[in-house]
Amino acid sequence: MSRRGTVEEKTVKSDPIYHNRLVNMLVNRALKTIQQKIETNPLSILRQAIRSVTTRFSVMSETVIRGVTLDIAVKERRIGGSIHQVPIEIGSTQGKTLAIRWLLGASRKRLGQNMTFKLSSELVDAAKGSGDAILKKEDTHSMAEANRAFAHFR
């Protein structure tokens, strides 16, 4: 415990338009651009994009309950002098955080006018099931599938 006192827990204020804590000015502008392009609810497009980029992995093993979906990622572990990509299970909040990070990274790499336009295009593509963020998710899935033999190194 600190001798100077305790730190007050900070609460993040929600956005007045969409009533969401994730939405800031950049995302607000991107959602307005989506609404002008597609003329649908942009918040549902955002949710659908995050849901489609989140790494879901279906476990079909005899020892585990069939049909269970897990959020999965790969992590580098040094074992016996060599580095292996080990598939690990992550929580749902970590999966959403990874999805948002991949969406932002893919939108930064896009060619375009400004970040608002690039982010809106990436969100629409991810909601449709295409784009660089979806490719990143598929690469993670294939890496986890290829290195399934190292899963006991968790």
From TrEMBL:
Against InterPro entries, the record matches this protein to: Ribosomal_uS7 (IPR000235), Ribosomal_uS7_bac/org-type (IPR005717), Ribosomal_uS7_dom (IPR023798), Ribosomal_uS7_dom_sf (IPR036823)
Q: Which UniProt keywords apply?
A: Ribonucleoprotein, Ribosomal protein, RNA-binding, rRNA-binding
- Look up keyword Zinc and say if it applies: no
An example Gene Ontology biological process: translation
Q: Which Gene3D superfamilies match?
A: Ribosomal protein S7 domain
List GO molecular-function terms, semicolon-separated: rRNA binding; structural constituent of ribosome
**Residues in domain Small ribosomal subunit protein uS7?**
63-148
Write down the Pfam families for this protein, in alphabetical order: Ribosomal_S7
GO annotation, cellular component aspect: small ribosomal subunit
Does this entry carry the keyword Oxidoreductase?
Answer: no
Describe the family membership recorded for this protein in Swiss-Prot or TrEMBL.
Answer: Belongs to the universal ribosomal protein uS7 family.
State the name under which the record lists this protein. Answer: Small ribosomal subunit protein uS7 domain-containing protein
